[in-house]
Specification:
Elements: E1 9-12, H1 17-29, E2 36-39, H2 50-55, E3 63-66, E4 69-72, H3 74-84, H4 96-107, H5 110-115, H6 125-152, H7 156-176, H8 178-199, H9 212-227, H10 231-234, H11 239-249, H12 252-257
Parallel strand pairs: 1-2
Antiparallel strand pairs: 1-3, 3-4
Bound molecules: glutathione.
């Protein structure tokens, strides 16, 4: 399959937290039929091929392809969908308060909670070797592009690999640094607590209407339960959050986007 020929698609990695945000956005906006769900094989490094880096220099998912134009980043996708399909369910993705809440969820690096350095003396030799290898693969691609550039003149993809390298190094720091793990774990628990407290007197994260903040909260909770801790831990002393979460799982959009009965 050639990604560059796609006209309308969601590039995603099934099961990853931001990909779930992307898929849920399509279902909540009722436009899931218009975009072909296209899995990017991250394990095989499909997200760092020149073709993908041309689409998204960050080498991340999700990316929405709309009429052949690429829109990376889940928040940008939400804002695009809210603007383009403004008659469909408004997610209030331009509202400052909604954005501020969404950013609280986005700031928690859940990858650290899953695969990060949980103990100061944890042996990270294997992970370091793996990260060094994936870094080298980026450099190899970049060098290939540089050689091509000399032959053909001008190549934006070579520069784009510098962006991907920055993302890679940031990811490596998040995974290998113990204080970073501690920081994100605290942020995660705090966010669960504050969300639980606000849900004691309202049905949704922002009050009595479903917004983009619910899409992030539900995706992060779902992912947390798959990868970080069982429901008994996530919901311990957080009964309002628990009730909210199971209400969200009952939504048809969530069932379909998260493939709950696949
Ligand atoms: N700010 C981005 C974050 C996207 C993101 O971190 N995606 C992860 C998957 S959940 C990814 O693509 N990671 C691959 C990598 O960085 O190598 C968004 O909101 O879409």
């Amino acid at each position: 399959m050639t990604l560059s020929t796609l006209r309308n698609a969601l590039l995603y990695n099934p099961g990853s937290v931001f990909s779930n945000v992307g898929a849920l956005l399509l279902w909540e906006k009722g436009v899931q039929q218009r975009y072909a769900l296209t899995a990017i094989d991250m394990k095989q490094g499909q997200n760092i091929t020149p073709e993908y880096i041309r689409i998204n220099p960050a080498g991340k998912v999700p990316v929405l392809i709309h009429d052949g134009r690429s829109i990376p980043d889940s928040l940008a996708i939400a804002q695009f969908l809210d603007t383009h399909y403004h008659h469909n369910n408004d997610l209030e993705s331009m509202d400052d308060k909604v954005i501020a809440t969404v950013e609280q969820w986005r700031r928690v690096r859940v990858l650290a909670l899953w695969m990060g350095k949980k103990h100061p003396d944890q042996d990270t030799t294997a992970l370091t070797a793996q990260l060094d290898q994936s870094r080298q693969r980026i450099l190899d691609y970049q060098q290939q592009q540089q050689q091509q550039q000399q032959q053909e003149g001008g190549n934006i993809v070579e520069k784009a690999y510098t962006t991907r390298l920055g993302m890679h190094d940031d990811r490596a720091r998040v995974l290998l640094d113990h204080p970073t793990y501690v920081h994100h774990e605290q942020q995660w628990r705090q966010l669960l607590d504050t969300t639980n407290a606000s849900l004691a007197h309202q049905a949704y994260v922002m009050g009595n209407r479903f917004t983009l903040a619910d899409i992030y909260a539900t995706s992060f909770l779902f992912w947390s339960i798959q990868k970080v801790a069982p429901p008994s831990t996530v919901f311990a002393h957080r009964q309002w959050l628990e009730q909210y979460y199971y209400r969200q799982l009952d939504r048809n959009s969530v069932k379909n986007a998260f493939c709950l009965s696949c």
